[in-house]
Design brief:
Elements: H1 4-9, H2 11-21, H3 27-30, E1 36-43, H4 45-66, E2 81-89, E3 92-103, E4 116-119, E5 134-138, H5 148-158, E6 166-173, E7 176-185, H6 189-196, E8 202-206, E9 229-231, H7 241-252, H8 258-263, H9 268-280, E10 296-300, E11 307-311, H10 333-341, H11 343-360, H12 366-383, H13 391-417
Helix pairs in contact: 9-11, 11-13, 12-13
Length: 419
């Protein structure tokens, strides 16, 4: 059992060893979906107990701080803890130096099987792991098959939509099996550089704090950020003014100028391609989710007022095989206006739905093969995961995903042909 003291003493040595051991590996190896990885984390028992005690307090503390409320007169609750991080790759133990761990998620938080945020650069800003600054280890408690998140993101990337790389792993905590987890590439400067060739713009995560579909909330920029658009960088000068301008333009631009006016603020082609992909996978908790927007990042490009939308958290994907492809378009001001004012964007949306159907295929197609590959890969580890839903629920959800893979493309084409 590693103690917190030994972690601190040997942190510098681990840093040196890390450089040597990880030389031949890259982040592509970590996100290799063809294998089930093994990750081991070591945390002082008292720290792990504290993490569970403060799990929900930390989420409340962060939210209240963003609302400008005082949590208490006492010092803030500590939400990050030092750990040792080990990735076992081809029989080699590759160790990350000076790593911080915290609970991750909001409504999905659990003390039974927590999701974790891993920060390699918290204690030393120059530290990375395979070039990565952060990871999320997602517990997948909201999906009995443990694979919906992984499958949705794989389809997005296959459609050349910027989305997190993901793989799955057996996770051990202090040498005790913690279950099957999904390794998720965080949306951070490394992700931005890889996908957009820059990272100095403004990054915001969207926090669902009230039901909203881009209706205009008035000229005060504080109505838009730090909530629901939570700054992830540039924390001293988060510059929310372009967000207010974007929302006002979405609501007030004349129909004849809608696409041109709004495209100054947002990559509409990228957005409508993403919306089509999310609709294909029937994601009920997305930009067009139930009841309103959730689970995305907004990145405003450097030296620009133009932004792009990045998907996040697909635990509720594959909600219905026959999900109506126009079901949620009316719940969002941007998409509702596009239905009448931007026929070119709606045409792109339909074309991208067909592309998704072609890529996914039907029986025996790419998507069904992905479900089978993931199932074969994690089945034994999932059966041994006593913290997930039951094995019966696991098998039933896999069977449903196979049916989705076999039938969804035909359902989407049928709906498109009926338009």
């Amino acid at each position: 059992m590693r103690s917190r003291i030994s972690f601190l003493i040997f942190a510098s040595l681990a840093s040196v060893l890390f450089v040597c051991e990880s030389y031949a590996q890259t982040s592509d190896d970590l996100f290799n979906e063809d294998i089930l990885h093994e990750i081991r984390i070591y945390i002082a028992p008292e720290d792990y107990a504290t993490l569970k005690q403060t799990n929900f307090i930390c989420a409340e503390q962060e939210l209240k701080t963003l609302f400008g409320e005082q949590v208490s007169s006492l010092p803030r609750v500590e939400c990050h803890f030092p750990i040792e991080f080990h990735w076992i790759f081809n029989g080699r133990d590759i160790t990350g130096p000076q790593v911080a761990l915290s609970s991750h998620g909001r409504t999905s938080r659990s003390n039974v099987k927590p999701s974790f945020g891993i920060q390699f650069d918290r204690y030393e800003s120059r530290n990375t792991f395979l070039g990565l600054r952060r990871l999320v280890l997602r517990a997948n408690l909201q999906e009995p098959s443990l694979m919906r998140e992984r499958l949705a993101m794989a389809l997005f990337r296959r459609m050349e939509i910027p989305a997190s790389r993901e793989s799955q792993a057996r996770l051990y905590i202090n040498d005790e099996y913690g279950g099957v987890y999904t390794i998720v590439e965080d949306v951070d400067p490394v992700f931005l550089e890889r996908n957009f060739g820059e990272s100095s713009g403004y990054l915001y995560s969207y926090d669902y704090v009230f039901e909203w579909g881009l209706s205009y909330l008035g000229p005060d920029p504080s109505n838009y950020s730090p909530l629901p658009f939570k700054p992830e960088n540039n924390l001293i000068y988060p510059d929310p003014f372009p967000i207010e301008e974007m929302v006002r333009t979405i609501n007030e631009a004349p129909d004849a100028e809608f696409s041109i006016a709004v495209s100054q603020y947002i990559d509409l082609i990228g957005l409508f391609r993403l919306l089509a992909a999310e609709t294909f996978v029937a994601d009920a908790d997305s930009f067009l989710g139930i009841p309103h927007m959730n689970n995305f990042f907004l990145y405003r490009f450097q030296n620009s007022i133009r932004s792009t939308i990045i998907p996040w958290d697909k635990s509720y994907a594959f909600y219905s095989i026959n999900w109506d492809i126009f079901y949620m378009l009316q719940t969002n001001v941007l998409t509702a206006r596009a239905l009448t004012a931007a026929p070119d964007l709606i045409a792109l949306y339909k074309d991208t739905l067909r592309q998704a159907a072609d890529i996914a295929g039907g029986p025996g197609g790419w998507f069904e093969q992905e479900v089978i590959k993931a199932y074969d890969q994690i089945r034994q580890a999932a059966y041994e995961d006593g913290l997930k839903p039951s094995n019966e629920d696991f098998e039933a959800d896999v069977a449903y995903l196979l049916a989705f893979a076999q039938q969804r493309a035909a359902s989407v084409r049928f709906q498109l042909d009926g338009q």
